[in-house]
Amino acid sequence: MTLDSSFIRRLIALGLLALVLALAWFGVAAPIAQGFADRAARREQLAEDLSYGRRLVAARPVWRALRTRQHGDAGAFAVIAPTAAEAAQLSMDRITDAVQRPGGLLASLREQPAAPGEARLRVEARLTLTQLVASLRLLEGQKPFVIIEGVSVATDPEASAGQSSPMEVRIDLAIPYLATAG
After folding, report:
1. Which pairs count as long-range contacts for 31-35, CB under 8 Å and 24+ apart, including other chains?
2. Of the four, 21, 67, 81, 131, which is 20 to 30 A from 51 by CA?
3. Nearest to residue 86, comparing CAs of 138, 121, 135?
4. Three-state DSSP state, 69
């Protein structure tokens, strides 16, 4: 029995040694190694962020030139007016002309509630399909641009097929504007 008991003691000693080594690894060495790996990854991320920041700062003159160019072009994309009501008023003549030039009949042109920075108008007119297309082309091609948010068309169901009959058309427009003093 001495042989078996010494074998069992060695086996228990090896098991305890393995347990102590596992505890030492998972309790001390692995967290330290993981901490080094985490800090190395964080250093790499910070180096990338620093590099990106330096590139961004180096591109500052390009961004300033772009801002200056866009500021100069702002009049092509927005009406310059102190209020939304004045922006709408400035746009009404142009919109009236875009409906009437192709031969359409303007029924009404009303201002609608709008978000800050834009004016909204609702156009109601009587147009044929050809006149509607021509009016929309005029609206979309003139500067400052307007945003056509919706077009509703109502036709007479008894109109003869193939005939270009007048339609009741409603066009919802948004007009971006840049606020100016006075």
Report:
1. none
2. 67
3. 121
4. helix
